[in-house]
Structure formats: structure tokens, C-alpha cells
Amino acid sequence: MEVIKTAIDGVVILEPKVFKDARGYFFESFSQREFEEKVRKVNFVQDNESMSSYGVMRGLHFQRPPFTQSKLVRCVKGAVLDVAVDIRKGSPTYGQHVVVELTEDNHRQFFVPRGFAHGFSVLSETAVFQYKCDSFYAPQADCGISIKDDSLGINWKIPMEKAILSEKDTRLCCLADFDSPFDINVDLYL
Description:
Layout: E1 2-5, E2 12-15, E3 19-21, E4 24-26, H1 32-38, E5 46-53, E6 57-63, E7 71-77, E8 79-86, E9 88-89, E10 97-103, E11 109-112, E12 116-122, E13 126-133, E14 142-144, H2 167-170, E15 182-183
Parallel strand pairs: 9-15
Antiparallel strand pairs: 1-2, 2-11, 3-4, 5-13, 6-12, 6-14, 7-11, 7-13, 8-10, 8-12
């Protein structure tokens, strides 16, 4: 597994070593030992999967403390544009984002630490998206930033008139109207 650092510390892209032959391919999608050696110590406790059609946009989600989550995400069918936004008050990269295209062909994974809002848009006809979380889902702590917030400067590669959002996601506020529960001292590595 190759670890690709991004412009924001702690947010990394993972590229597995894929073995291909006439039968197809094989790769190790997760190794606790290798992840801890190359990225950080982690204890994933929940795996989630979603299936979405073209134009679906999910996010930008996170859980408020003390239920914060780190996520390791990947697209196993189709293609998504995946985004992590730094929402740690006092961070030199506050409000900045990292974008990566995750596809069934590139097998890339994206690690989104605590203190970041996460979202994605579906670029293919359909997409199956999987992610590991290091804390259980806590509905009382569910929160987010609007995916339509132009001040973030995110090119979702989907025209907004074709975007399909949940009712919950249409009610999320913009970053400027948001009082982040995280600060620069948030422990990204709990």
C-alpha cells in the first residue's frame, strides 16, 4: 500500500498494490498492521455501504464530540468525487478541502480524520461506496455543512441543477454560519 500525503496534514490517499492476471485481480483492501505502520493507530468498529445513482451528493457530514469519527472510504463500483473539509477552528487550513476521485478501477481509498466534514458526489451511472468508521453512528451527534456552500470552492463535477440531495442535506448551513465544535487541538488520532 502506498500512502499519498495531501495538502492537509492527516488526510491521506491510499493506493493498494493490485495483482492482475488473466483471471482478474487481487488486492488487500485493509490491513490493520499496515495501516497502523504507515498511517496511524486505528480501531475501526463499523463498516457502512451505500448505493447511489448519478448526481447524488451526500454530505458534508460529521459527528459532534464526543462521538467524532475518522473514516476510511472507497468506491467499489462506479466512480465518486470524495471530499474532506477541515472544520477545526484555528487550523491554518480551516475551510480548505482535499478532493480525490475514487473509482472501482483505481481502487484508491481516502482517510478522513476527526475534525473534518466528509461528502461525495456520484459521477457514474451508479456507485457503491463503502467506509469504515472508528466510532459508532450516533444520531444525536449527526451534523454537517451544506454541500452547496459556494464559499468552499469545491467543484463537485455535477451541475447543481442535476444534484440529488436528501432533505436533511438541503437544510445544512454554510461554513460561515457554522460554529464548529472542533478546534485545532482536536485529537485526530483517538
